[in-house]
Design a protein that fits this description.
Number of helices: 11
Shape: elongated
CATH class of the largest domain: Alpha Beta
Strand content: 15-25%
Largest sheet: 8 strands, mixed
Number of strands: 14
CATH topology of the largest domain: Rossmann fold
Radius of gyration: 22 Å
Order of helices and strands: EHEEEHEHEHEHEEHEHEEHEEHHH
Helix content: 25-40%
Mean pLDDT: 93
Number of domains: 2
Low-confidence stretches: none
Length: 383
Amino acid sequence: MKKRILVFIDWFLPAFKAGGPITSVLALSKILANHFNVVIITGDRDLNDTTPFEHVLFNQKVKEEISGAEVYYLKRGVHRIRTVIRILQSEKPDVVYINGIFSFWFSLFPLLLMKANILSCKVIICPRGMIGDNTLQVKKYKKQFFLSVTRLTGWYRKITWHATSETEKNRIKQHVSGEPEIVVIPNVPVSFNYINKNNRSKKEGVLSLVYCSRILPIKNLLFLLQLLSEIKDGDITLDIYGPIEEEDYWGKCKNIIRLLPANIKVNYLGAVNAHTHPVDYSLYDFMVLPTLHENFGHSISEALSAGCPVIISDNTPWRGLSEANAGFDIPLSDREHWVSSVKHCLHMAHDEHQKWKQGAKLFFDKKSDLKNNKEKYLQLLTP
């Protein structure tokens, strides 16, 4: 009989605007499907939406087709207390896996139930990058106060932590009292086998770029646009995909776009649900993301898996790209290196670009190591 894993996450399919955490749980659900019964507890709407999903049954278990998992979509309101307790009593999970640490309903409340002895099983928390240096700058003082209180009270006693990198492991040690049990396993990518492998020719002096991420300061789109404004030769096209989360920030981006030189063309193509309509990265010469922090970077992995080299900051786990002819990982402080790298890509000829495309795919295959990581997840989630 399969063991039962109950997963708490603020947003899950059909939600997509929250980006990486949704994709991480989707990928995890897929690799665990043959070994565990995966049941997900999540909210009733997408990130920043004011209305709940349409055509979804709330507060009862339904099958989610893309992930194959069973899902409870919780309606908002204090009645969630009774609903979650009812779910725990009926599901009788062997393991509870919590994504994130700052959400009341999907991070704190399950732990309150554990402390009240309503929940009594193995509990695992994955911070999903929420305690990175740059992410903690958002609502800084509230988060620092919360982390201080949890340290002083020993809030996270008897918890197993899942870190997706050594950096995150160090952050957990920094913010959790005592000697927490921490298991390091990278995220696993979601594979889109139906992406078209486009073989169009790369022309010297012409560059096609794609940015696919949320539009808010931490993803640093404004930095990219300011960078492009310094390149006066050649022809560069940038396609932007992603939900606009901060209108003021997007307004600053649009002001830069209006002032770009004539050789730079920027197209905003809206928010896309990558789980149902994935971006075809093979249509582009390079993917670009000057992020301030990326716990994993699913858009980066998807680009590399499609043979699209990337130009990214060094604030992600995807390092050593240039040595592998898979792209560039550049410190944001080195603006000159950013400009010279984009210019190098702009003037790259077809034969050289083909080598970089091959390098991107090989780098992804080596880095992802799905078989080994799957075994580690099975060990982590076994009660």
